[in-house]
UniProtKB/TrEMBL annotation:
This is Phosphatase. InterPro entries: Phosphatase_SCO2771. It comes from the Bacteria.
Amino acid sequence: MPIDRAPSRQALIEHLLRTRIAGDVATTRENNLDHYRELASGNRYYWLGLELGDRWTEEDAVLQVMAHRCGVVPDPGHRAGQDTIDPELTVDALERLAIRLRKAADGRQRVLLATGHPGGLLGVHQATAAALRQAGCEIVTIPEGLHADEGRLLQMGGVAMVLRGAALVHTHSPEPMAAILDAMDEAGRPLPDLVVADHGWAGCAGQRGIDAVGYADCNDPALFVGEAEGTLAVTVPLDDHVAPHYYDPMTAYLLDAAGLL
């Protein structure tokens, strides 16, 4: 489906299920529970730049948040096999995200977009950046010469990411976003009004007190926990690593709901 044509809500839900962006996703229950356990045990790699303290020390509490906000199987006795993302929750979150994008457009706000998952979500972020720029937003240009996470920070189509050697990097680290925000602060540049991102890029921005929205898979619980605590404004549940063009109808739905298509 072309990105300039938005599906209906029901058509999008059917597409999410068919492409396994939601529904019976590829991530296994074992992998999900392992990541929930790591977050609860205090492994900061799984905190995605958030500071969770000792507020989330029980795996079952994390599971409850993920069942409520992402749609994984709520039964703690389900320990192996298939897990799920509820497509209704995905679309609900897209509609909440659209409201925040509309606010950014109406206020011609400064928006920083970034991805730690360029293999899947880069096109989503680039289309969002283009639509916001067309609406009059300032798409924040990151400072030059920054390095983090063993790579160089760059932007493509208004989206920040990490380049390591000749490859765009899949990273959960909050360090790239921290490097950008620190450099902007040191240069006396105003920080973004809104960050649209994923992984540690979104978590770090939210932890710094910036209005942040993000996309997250069912094995990345931290951003959902952050939304539950109010540190992130919106977290959209989806499988973040399907074929990139599968996200086009979802992106069209988002931008249409925001009045940006």
